[in-house]
Structures are given as C-alpha cells and as structure tokens.
C-alpha cells in the first residue's frame, strides 16, 4: 500500500494514500504545506512541486492544491466543488474540469 512521508521536526510520519484527501500550501506560511486526511491535518515544510513529482497519486487542481482523486466522491462542476469520502469539501477551478473528469472517470473503473 503506497504511503506519503512527511517530516515534522525530527519525526517522520507515514500516511496511507487511502487516507489522504488533499495537499495544499498553507495560508499562513507559504513555505509550509497542509496535508488533509480523513481524520486530521498535518502542517509541515515542503514544496508542492516536489510532492507532485514524487507522488503520481496526486492530481493538481490549482496552483496551490493537489488532490487524491481516489477519495473524491462527488463533483459539482457548476459550483466548482469536490466532495470527498470523508465529509470535506474543496474548491476546484473550472480550467481543470475536463482533465479532472478524465482522471476521476479512470479512477472509478
């Protein structure tokens, strides 16, 4: 089972991709990323581009957000909203709509 590794201080944490909803830049500190899972959030130092390059499971929906398409349950393209398996909502830009539909369709096969 693939997992995502992150380091907070001297502690390395491994998170199963089954639990990951999204990864985005922190609103408060642009050098930090926020990993949102089905149960918690982790804030740590990192670069979104490196995470995207190292983990093919992510899909970039905007300049500041990567999602795990495996956990997207419902999409509302008119309102640009994603609903995850955990009760969490996320916005998605319409510019990525066509590609996101393709990725989600392939994940649901």
From TrEMBL:
Signal peptide: none
GO MF term set: DNA binding
Pfam family, one: LytTR
Transmembrane feature ranges: none
InterPro entries per UniProt: LytTR_DNA-bd_dom
Domain of life: Bacteria
The protein's name: LytTR family transcriptional regulator
